[in-house]
């Protein structure tokens, strides 16, 4: 059920929620948290709401969407309440703020918060430089951003590291859960040797590749090189060098990876890129600070930058191409020297 409340107030929205609960039996007391989604009003707003609805099936919650509209318009609040099949296992309140109200999202959210329930703030697209100092971020116990959705992901990740506060997290970090699990399991098998060097290859605009390299640098206490892949999306390959041989995890198609270890047959591992719904569901399982993510952010400065790893084979052929070019170049002057000299 979807109920539209144009040109309304938060008091009227709250009264309508109470009325729906009494008449329709929507049990607000069963909500474990309040999820506030902060975004600009547009087509992508529905993508975030859909992901929150799917995540609410594991974490029943009240979802409040702060959709900021045109700031030059007159001050107006248009609300929409979704319950039942249109809201998953949650109740969704969409607040579209226009004019001066577009910057007053926190004031509009406070009257709709569930009593004694933790608050999680999520910026699915562009996020403030310092989420913990944002008016809505100050209300939240947990603040979720996504560097991959920013215009310049690498720069956004650097900003996250600079302004990190307890409770901050990034979906670019959550996408690494499967990679970290496979690599940790591989290192738990014999031979138990120290990693002397590591290489992480991925797309140039992949913040997850940066975080994986930083995590390895802090955990292994060894040099870690971050290499830009010539093609492919996200993380492409990881190589951990040890004295007896390298442990390699390669995923060329963003779906299935191949794990290679010395003395063992190659194994195929499911490494499909995780959806927003899966990442959001995982992040809502904990409300305490993520110390591992904090250490990974600190390890960004320890990464050594390298050239594209997938170009290695091409680079080996490069000298042959250069020599052919030189030969052709030397022939041309000789050809020009052949014309006979003019007779005097």
Automatic annotation (TrEMBL):
Domain of life: Bacteria
Domain Glucose-6-phosphate dehydrogenase assembly protein OpcA C-terminal residue range list: 167-297
Biased composition (Basic residues): 333-344
InterPro entries documented for this protein: G6PDH_assembly_OpcA, OpcA_G6PD_C, OpcA_G6PD_N
Source organism phylogeny: Bacteria, Bacillati, Actinomycetota, Actinomycetes, Pseudonocardiales
Organism in which the protein naturally occurs: Herbihabitans rhizosphaerae
Pfam families, sorted: OpcA_G6PD_assem, OpcA_G6PD_C
Record-annotated Glucose-6-phosphate dehydrogenase assembly protein OpcA N-terminal domain positions: 52-161
Name the UniProt record assigns to this protein: Glucose-6-phosphate dehydrogenase assembly protein OpcA
Span list, region Disordered: 305-344
